[in-house]
Amino acid sequence: MPRHTTVIKRFLFRQPCFPLWLGLVPLLTAWGEAPTPNPIRVAVSLPLLKDVVENVGGPSVEVIDLLSGQGDVHVFEPTPADVRNLAKAELIYEIGLNLEPWLDSLVAASQTRARRIRLSDGIDRIPTGGHHHHHHDLEEPGDEPESTDLEIPDPHIWLDPIRMTYMVVAIGETLAEQRPEAANLFEDRALDYIAEIRKANRTARAYLDPLPEDRRSFITYHDNFRYFSEHFELYPVASILGTISTDHFDPSAEHIRDLIHLIGEEGVAGIFPEYGEPNDLAIIVAREAGIPLGPPLYGSRFDADPEGPVQTYLDLLIYNARILAETLGK
Questions:
Q1: pLDDT digit string (tens) for 160-184?
Q2: For residue 252, is it within any domain?
Q3: What's the sign of the alpha-carbon dihedral 303, 118, 115, 104?
Q4: Is residue 124 within 8 Å of residue 167, measured between CB atoms?
Q5: Which residues is 42 bridged to in the sheet?
Q6: Residues 6 or more apart from 155 whose CB is under 8 A from it?
Q7: Cα 164 versus chain centre, distance
Q8: For the chain, which terminus, N or C, has the lower number of CB atoms within 10 Å?
Q9: What sign does the dihedral 52-160-17-210 (CA atoms) show?
Q10: Residue 57 within a domain
Q11: What are the pLDDT digits (tens) for 22-64?
């Protein structure tokens, strides 16, 4: 039975309690940074998961990012080097929900014996339903539409800090199972990282909470900000591509015309391209609709430039919140 979002929110963000194994770890316990004699070889299917796993595992993990930081998870094509790297892994962390359609064949080709952990298991999903969620669908934050067998779950769960916290719990537990002698290290680091996520959540809310109701609707490059929006009470009216994946051809002229018309009907406050994706259509739509064009939002990748503003998952949460608040608030 999936956990309801409002229950998760109350459990992790409104009450000073944590999942059972975290609650047993003293808050002030000091944990050492010495690596285990045999670090766990971990492969991840998403660039930002490398950052998350390293925060939990510290020097006791060696993490391979299969997408090498800048790959698009929707259209990734593995190479022979990826096959060799995966063959050495003990654990594979993936999102699931059809986000990584290439992973099954890569696992088979590598003949790896690695344990696969789907981080979306047991976490509430937002169904796409083959349509956009307009703002009237999200008037009660935390309420999710009823799903049907025909609806495909949105896989972009990491953009909600609540759901990410449960992913951190799963990572800590599975690392501890893999190396029981380092269980205390992983559990303590997971607790510390959860505290950092909670702090980033408060910072993001400080940016977004002041937005008035009529300045909370926006357009994205593709349909990947539903979870973020549900948590922060925003309204992702539609997207330029009109899909949850970037694995599609450019939208038709008719789709763009309909999008511009929808912007006027819904009173959309801004449009945002996505880091690592083309921004030409966003520029055109913003100009034709007469709405603000914001800087690119970050979905699953960090800055290729080491001096860029998004180098970690926590950076991603705070940066996206700040950019949305600054653009929509104009």
A1: 999 999 999 999 999 999 999 999 9
A2: yes
A3: negative
A4: no
A5: 63, 91
A6: 95, 96, 97, 98, 99, 120, 244
A7: 7
A8: N
A9: positive
A10: no
A11: 444 433 334 445 666 789 999 999 889 999 999 999 999 999 9
Q: How many residues does the chain have?
A: 330
Q: At 227, which amino acid appears?
A: Y
Number of domains in the chain: 1
Domain that holds residue 218: 210-328
| Distance in angstroms (rounded) separating the CA atoms of residues 78 and 54 | 23
Is the Cβ–Cβ distance between 56 and 189 less than 8 Å?
yes
Sign of the dihedral defined by the CA atoms of residues 170, 24, 204, 47, in that order: negative
Residue 90 in any domain: the answer is: no
Instruction: Supply the CATH number for residue 278's domain.
Output: 3.40.50.1980
The amino acid at residue 134 is H
Residue 245 lies in a domain: yes
Task: Record the pTM.
Answer: 0.81
- The secondary structure of 97-160 as a DSSP string is TTS-TTHHHHHHHHT--PEEEETTTTS---B-TTS---GGGGSSTT--PPP-TTPPBP--GGGS
